[in-house]
Amino acid sequence: MRIVRAKTYGAISILNAIPTGIGGAFGVDLHLEAEVEVLEEPGRIEAVIPEGEDPKLVIETAKTVLEYAGRSDIGLRIKTRSNIPIGRGLKSSSAASNAVALAVAKLIGLKMPLEKILELAIRSSIKAGVTITGAYDDAYTSLFGGINITDNYGRRLLVREQAPENLRIVISIPEKKIYTRSIDRSRLTRVREVYLKAAQLALRRRFWDAMILNGLATALALELEPSPIIESFRAGALGAGISGTGPAIAAVVEPEKLEAVREVLEPYGRTIICNPNNLQASWEVISNG
Question: What does the buried/exposed string (b/e) look like for 47-61 if buried means 16 or more CB atoms within 10 Å of the residue's CB?
């Protein structure tokens, strides 16, 4: 049985795109893998995912790729595994839809650029209801790595840079999960002018300043605790903020400031240390049996 595995990556937020349509993300080396194989039963999609999570996105993505290819004659079994914390704003949904779309496409022999994989993955995420704007910034960064500022409604890349590989990312992960679909969008748009200022900073490549302003605006809008952002900055972080709609707090640091920033974030949740990611998504055939 032929099995294909695809690997995509997580990211942290520079800009939340919900209030303005302009989003930004910074690739990190957290990752997700999807393994896909053909089932004998046509049309059946079987998802094996982490316990307690909704399989809707995985199934919707597989269906979208099969429909695009005109392959109603096969079924699929999909397994995912990941070290990206789910429901914390670290782009696990984008990583999942990207990885499943890429693995299914390669399994059935579709020849298409990663940009088309991105389009199908975003379409699937919208159908599954896991994104408000299409999350083009998150999906692009999950697939291509680096630092990316995007027009999410126009699906355009506005600024792209390699993520500085000498930096480290400290992430505080509270127990609470927040899913984008549960957010009241109006709470974010009430402070739209603040988000616009953050977007202007990001478009001028002042990514860390944008990250801080975006994080404070999100904390204000969603009634999340801003202290971790402020304390991280005081401890020497270049940038810090709420990733996505939270609740994870991410701080970008120089290596010599890592321990000081980790120390101030530890009271707010489990901390993990990541590296910047500039790698593109990848795939491989792991069985031709």
Answer: bebeeeeebebbbbb
